[in-house]
Every structure is written in structure tokens, then in C-alpha cells.
Amino acid sequence: MVSTGIVMQSTSSGTFSQAGGTIPSSLGHSIVSLTTLATVVVVCVILYVAKDLFLPLALGMLVAFVLTPVVTFLRRRGLRDTPAVILTVLGAASLVAAFVLVLAIQLSQIASNLPQYQGNVLGKIDGMLQAGEGSQVIAHLQTMVENILARLEGGAGATNSIAQVEVVDRTGVKDWITGVIIPALSPVAIFGLIFVVVVFALLERASLRERLVQLIGGSNIVATSRLLAEAGSRVSSYLIAQLVVNVIYAIPIGLGLWALGIPNALFFALVTLVLRFVPYIGSVISAALPLLMAFAESPDWSLVLWTAALFGVVELVTSNLIEPWFFGQRTGVSPLAVIVSAMFWTWLWGPMGLIIATPLTVCLVVIGHHVPSLRLFPILLGDGPVLNQSAQLYDRLLAGQSIAFTEAATSSTDKLFLAEYYDQTALPALALAQADHQAGLLSDYQAERIARAAETLTDELDQVVEDELSVASDTPLEGSTALTANGVLDGVGHSVVVIGAQTKLDDAAAMMVAQVFRAEGSEALALAHRSAMPRSIGPTLGAFSPTTAVLVSLDPSPGPAVEFLIRQLRRRLPGVRIGLAIWATAQDEAQGAGKSAADFVVTGMEALLVESFVSPDAKVA
User: Fold this and answer.
1) pTM as predicted
2) For labeling, which of 19, 224, 486, 566 is most exposed (least CB within 10 Å)?
3) CB of 549 within 8 A of CB of 599?
4) What is the pLDDT of residues 244-272, one digit of tens each?
């Protein structure tokens, strides 16, 4: 038989779980220290002050991430490293140059055609003003626009009159260079730096990897190598998938706008392709420009409605069908974190920061999974659960969300057997409560409220017991050797009395354990800890004749009081096997009761079922 242990985590001890496993922290220690916060603030200041340096570097490294699979593909086709890198970078640069050229041509055409749309725009505005006659809002808007136009005309007239008497000095060569040449060269210089970073990052990718391994991990080469591989894989797969999705999104937009007769449909398709890299708001911004063009192009409103319908249909299909298929592997960043990171990187680095916000945040989350001092990033930004299921239930109980507790239990028992759910989730949650109660972090009232909620949950899960009894078979489920999950009534012919050891939380745990025994086909009776006293045990049992008695304790090291109770039970229940079942938190590992008077001491549901379902004749005198 396989004996399963219990893994539990305490919110009071700061324990949390992530994709990489469970990371416990010591009691009273905060995950975010003042040193960490100071370091983050200093890094942010450096990134803001030196953004002219770090922005091209970050863009270049992200582009290198995207182009690395292409270089690898060419290398596998027989090209040497340097020709493969040069061919890849030149191909990417040619595509970007062609994209910018087409964009510039389309934009110049739009600018030259703007005057011919004036009549349609004025006609629609007049129509809206006529429709709103008598409305105070429209009247105020009309007055405001007239005032603005009058002010602009007055300012233009004053400027013209001044210009007639001013003496204009000729612009010198120095002013021309600083005012025209340098601003024009600045974007060229930035793209040049990005180009250089991409080339050398691809050429020196093996050397850079080795240096990062030494810098980050030192002697821990395996963990650092795994970190770099995961970061590179997530970022490159995200960017490539996003590019493919954007192309798939832009093609029907361009064709649809062309079919509707929107001028310069190619320009709007290319703008849509780029803007969809901006999370969430990119699609809205990309739809605004064609809608404005439709407003100006058509004398009525039909073209505007058709354009809005086109974007709505394409967005629904892309969001619900295409994106889930392409983004099969999650980025590891929660939706709220994507929005917050977009705001942060936009504040830090401007519009380019908005575009690269998600890849940079993905890198931070991945690094936080592997570097303990930076684990605040996966906690704050990650999309995985910070607490495991037992800690989540305990937190809900602390907040008084008993309904959420019951709903979570109901959904879990649809996927797990009752024994598995209690063993992995509900009983560990009660153990967390017991540990905090003993530490003085939980009041008696709170402990009693949690116990009552657990008892209510047990009552509401009686239907699960009936369902498991009705569908149980004589053949174990394929691949299941544990009694908790084999789908067989292993407890038929056994009768068990389950007793809470010392507290009301133990009593609630005893009710859960007794319910598991009933789901396994046994006759089971749950008793409170006060009922196990010598004067009470006989009348309480009545005609119930148990083959096994089990004391349930949520204390990792039951004391003399439990041992005294075991000896009393042995006197009152001669011939009955007496066991002690212990559940404890991960921080307070179950220690048993030393030389216990019990016939068996177990930790976990599987071991308890194994010991309880042995032959009734196998008993200790």
C-alpha cells in the first residue's frame, strides 16, 4: 500500500506556492524586506534616468529573442553562425524598412485627401446640431466650440499683424543643425543602436549565456540554465505568437475595410498590426482611426456602423478562438498585472515601454520563480495561485466566507474522491487553524466559528457519500492503488468510531474522517472529544460495536492528555484496535506521540485507511 503524507502551508507563517513548488518562510518574516524595496526603487530611478541607454538595449535583446529561433533554423540547414545571423538580421531589417515605407506612403495619401472630406464632416455635425436643438448640452457644446474658434481666429490675426512689423533674423547654421538635423538623427541613432545590439546579441549568444549563468547563479549552473531557458522560451514564444495573431487579425481588417470602400485600407491594417502589441487598449485605438475615416468618408452613418461591426466580429473571433489556440502556454502574468505593468513601463519609458511591457514583466516573473530574493515579482505579478488550496480555504474561513468554502469543496469533489479532498485540502486547512490557535494568533471565537463552518460543510457533503457508494465497484480504477482513490468499498464489514482528540477543531476533523469511512462502506460514528471520557463513552456508543477506534488530532505532537485518553479508551473498549491519526502543517511536521499506547499512529488518510481496514482479528491485547 502507498502511504500518502500531508503537505500543508500556513498563511501565518508566510508560506506560498508557485509553479516551482512550495516556498516556506519563517514565522514573522516578510517576503518583501526594506532592502529589497530600496533596491527596486534604486533600479527604477536608474532605468528612468538612463532610459536613453536601457531602452535600445531592452528592445535589442527582445528582438534578439524573437530572431534566435530563425538563426537556429538556418544553422540546422547548414549555414555557419555568422552568415545565419547576418541573413536573419538583414531580412528582419528589410521587412521593417518595407513596413515603414508603405506606412509613410499611405500616410501621405491620407494627408493629401483630407480636404475633400470637409463637406461630409460638416454635414454630419450640422445634422447632430439640428437633432439636438433645444438641448442645453448641445447648446453649451456649440457655444464652447464657437468661443474656441473665435479665440483661435483672434490669435491668428494678432500673430499675422505682429509678423508684418517683426524683423526676422536669418537662421544660422548652428541653429539649423540643433533644431533640424539632430532631432531628425535621434530616431536613426536609436534604431542603429538597436540594430547593433541585435547583431552582437545573436553572434555572442553562447558567450552571453555563460556570463549570465556565472553572474546570476555562480556555482548553481543547473538552476540558472533552467531560468534562462524558461525566460527565453516564454518571451520568444509570446512575441512570435503575438505577431502571428496580429497578422491574422490585421488581414481580415484590411480586406474588410477595402471591401467597405474605406480609403487607404492597407494603412489602417498595418497600424492595427502594430497597435495590437499594446495590451487590451491596442485594439480599441486601432479601431478608432478607421471609424474616424468612415465618419469623414461617408455622407451618412452606415459606413461607420459597418466598420464598427467589422472590428467587433474580428475581435470576438480572435479573442475567443485564435488567441486561446496560439497562446496555449500562458505567459505567467495575471491580467491585472499586465495592465499595471503597462502603466508602469509607459511612465518609465514612454510609448515604447507600453509595447514591451508584457515581455519585460514575463522576464521578471520567471526570474522571481528561480531567485528567492526576487520572489515578490511572481507573487505580485504572476497568474498562478499564491496559496495552495488548503491555505485558500483557511483564508476564506478567516474572512467568514463559509459559502465560498462550501462552493470550493463541491467543485473539488466533482474531480476528486471525498477522501482525497479531505486529505489534501480540508483537513490541512483545519490544521492551519489549529496551529494558529495554539500560537495565540486565532481567538477562541474564531476557532469555534471555523469548526462550525467545517461541520456544516461535512453535513452538506453527505450527498457525495451517497454518490460514491452508488458508483463504487469491485474493480479498482486503472492506475489507482491508493485506498483513497481506487473507487472500491474497502471498508465493508468494518465499523469505526472516530473521536476528536482535544479541541472543537479536532471534533470537526473527526466528522470529516468518519464521513470518509462511510464513503468507503464502513459503519462510522463521529464523537466529540468530551464524549470520549470514561463516563460518557459507553452511553454514547449504545448498540454501536466498533472494530476500530480512531482519535483525530490536529496537534503535531499530542501531549499526555491524549495518551491518557487512549488508555481510558482501551479500558472501556477491550478488544478494539485504537489508533491515533495526526494532521499537521508543513512547518510543524507530525511527530507522533513517542511511545504511544495506541495500536497504530498514522499521518494522512491513506495510512489511516490501511491500518483501519486490517482484519479485526489483528489486534493488540
Assistant:
1) 0.60
2) 19
3) no
4) 888 999 999 989 989 988 888 888 888 88
